[in-house]
Amino acid sequence: MSRTRFAPDRGLATRMVSTMFLIGLLYVVIVGVLVALLGNAWPLIVLLVGGMFIAQFWFSDRIAAFSMGAREVTPDQAPELHGAVDRLCALADMPKPRVAIADSDVPNAFATGRSQRKALVCATTGLLRRLEPEELEGVLAHELSHVAHRDVAVMTIASFLGVLAGLITRMALWGGLSRGNNRDNGLGAALLLVPLVSAVVYVISYLLTRLLSRYRELSADRAAALLTGRPSALAAALTKVTGEMAQIPTRDLRQAEPYNAFYFAPAFSGRSFSKLLSSHPTLEQRLDQLGRISAQLGRP
Fold first, then answer.
1. In which residues is Zn(2+) bound (predicted)?
2. How far is 129 from 114, CA to CA, in rounded Å?
3. DSSP 8
4. Cβ proximity of 149 and 6 under 8 Å
5. Which of 51, 134, 174, 276 is within CB 3.0–4.6 Å of 233 for a Cys-Cys bond?
6. What gap in Å lies between CA 164 and CA 236, rounded to an integer?
7. CA triplet 294, 295, 296: central angle to 5 degrees?
8. Which ranges of the chain does DSSP label H, i.e. alpha helix?
């Protein structure tokens, strides 16, 4: 990993390695079950799974950017946004990512990309309209730390297994089960294992990615606060963005919810949500950490 001036986080690195190891084990399990149950069709399954994995990793940044409505902009089109990214990249000593804007009133930002040189940082029009310059820099520093720590790439790979498990479950339920039951009870019973194993793998991979996601958000807050030296600006941005979410129409929040793991702050259409299933730590946790960092920076 290219070194930057963002504060390293050994806890994040350990969690990323552990998550990838466990996800890899689950990946082997689900492929092994498919190979055992599908007999002569296993080469096609392995080829299909491998192709999907490569496509997901290689094109993940474009898929995410397109899905969230990101439009790449030039310095002439968004001088203030580019200026803020330029200053932060110079401060962090890292390559400048592509810069984009998403036309959405939901105040948020996100970063994608499998490497620093392939990265993209995007802010929504709702965020740009609501935040002061120092607050915006805090949010952008948060997103750039995701790029520097490469946890964006890890989240993309980790989430792939859940997508694959869900797809296999639907395929088995729609197609394989009916044909298996028509042939013989033994094959039908065996094919029942496919959606069962896939469902278990999906739940485990979902919980693993949520655990990693919550920690990486705290890590990005810490790294951004230390880089800019203004944890209070990031805290103000967090408070403002979270408060503004309540004013956003429910329809817009529901459209944004599938991408919460990539966003600076979660978009929720409901008033409450389970901490276990949340992609982000609570606002209180994030503000408490920023308060401690502010106290540390204020010491002689």
1. 142, 146, 217
2. 29
3. P
4. yes
5. 134
6. 39
7. 90
8. 10-38, 42-58, 60-67, 79-92, 125-130, 133-149, 151-171, 177-183, 185-228, 231-245, 250-256, 283-297
Evaluate the CA torsion angle 29, 201, 20, 95 in order and state its sign.
Answer: positive
Name the percent of the chain lying above pLDDT 90.
43
| Domain residue extents for the chain | 10-297
Question: Is residue 146 marked as binding?
Answer: yes
Does 217 belong to an annotated binding site?
Answer: yes
To the question of whether residue 280 is assigned a binding role by annotation, the answer is: no
- Token pair 């600076």: residue: 264
Report whether 223 contacts 149 (CB < 8 A). Answer: yes
State the catalytic residue, choosing from 135, 137, 143, 244: 143
Q: What is the maximum span of the chain, computed from C-alpha positions, in angstroms?
A: 78
Q: Is 9 exposed, middle or buried, given 0-12, 13-18 or 19+ CB atoms closer than 10 A?
A: buried
| Stretch (H or E) spanning 99 | strand 98-102
Give tens-digit pLDDT for 228-268: 999 999 999 999 999 888 788 877 777 777 777 778 988 76
Under 8 Å between Cβ of 240 and 130:
yes
Around Cβ 70, how many Cβ atoms within 10 Å?
A: 25
Q: Which residue(s) pair with 99 in the sheet?
A: 121
